[in-house]
Amino acid sequence: MINDNPAGRALLRDKLIDGLRRAERTLFTRPAPKSARAQMKFLRTREGTSKSLAERLGVSRKTVDRYLSGATKKPQKRLQAALAQEIEAEWQPQVKAQARQRAAASAGLVISTTAYFGFGSEGSDAGRMRDIQVAVSPSHAAAILAARDTGATDSELHDLVAEAIADAYFRVEGGGRAGLKVRI
User: Fold this and answer.
1) What distance in Å separates the CA atoms of residue 124 and residue 121, rounded to the nearest whole number?
2) pLDDT tens, 49-82?
3) C-alpha span between 116 and 108 (Å, rounded)
4) Cα–Cα distances in Å, from 135 out to 95, 98, 164?
5) Rounded to two decimals, what is the model's pTM?
6) CB neighbourhood size of 103 (10 A)
7) Kind of pairing, strands 109-117 and 128-136?
8) CA distance readout (Å), 25 to 53, 67, 68, 73, 108
């Protein structure tokens, strides 16, 4: 799984982060607010004042107040994206923390990917695209989640995921292809 193109690496990082976010969303005990007004109300309870929320979203205080009062209902795309991002960051932090702790302590993560790999030029092991889904160990899950939370670079995240896939898929229980290298 090789991608040396910077744009391709950024796309892979986005897919990785999006996959982790989707996994977190499945654990939510309640759905996140959908309407702009409900999202603004929720974020204002977290932020405290309309002014500080407006600064966080990059809009005026009057804009925030119009959504809170219900005078404005449909946000522009930039504001809609900012609301979605902020809701994602703030929604049910304890549920997210428990899921991360569970993944790092006992459950691990399941990684699904499509990759090009193979071992020879002919036969059934010839290189080709394959869909793989592997359950990685809690120690790998903890490293991946910690790296994501501390703002790891694309290369660092890819290396951690590649190592987790290599251990789970190719080096099962310490055996298998011990010298095999996997790159994303």
Assistant:
1) 9
2) 889 889 889 899 999 999 999 888 888 889 888 8
3) 24
4) 21, 19, 9
5) 0.56
6) 22
7) antiparallel
8) 23, 25, 25, 25, 17
Structure tokens at 120: 């020879």
183 neighbors 162 (Cβ within 8 angstroms):
yes
How far is 30 from 38, CA to CA, in rounded Å? Answer: 14
Instruction: Report the candidate in 65, 71, 28 with the shortest Cα–Cα distance to residue 44.
Output: 65
Count other C-beta atoms under 10 Å from residue 44's C-beta: 18
Both tokens of 48, joined, read: 């405290």
What lies within 8 Å, CB to CB, of 178 at 6+ separation is 171
Output the pLDDT for position 2.
Answer: 46
Whole-Å CA distances, 50 to 55, 69, 91, 143, 154: 9, 12, 19, 38, 35
**The amino acid at 90:** E
Per-residue CA distances from 97 to 45, 85, 89, 94, 146 (Å): 20, 18, 12, 5, 12
Structure tokens at 64: 């925030």
Alpha-carbon distance values, 119 to 144, 161, 176 (Å)? 27, 20, 13
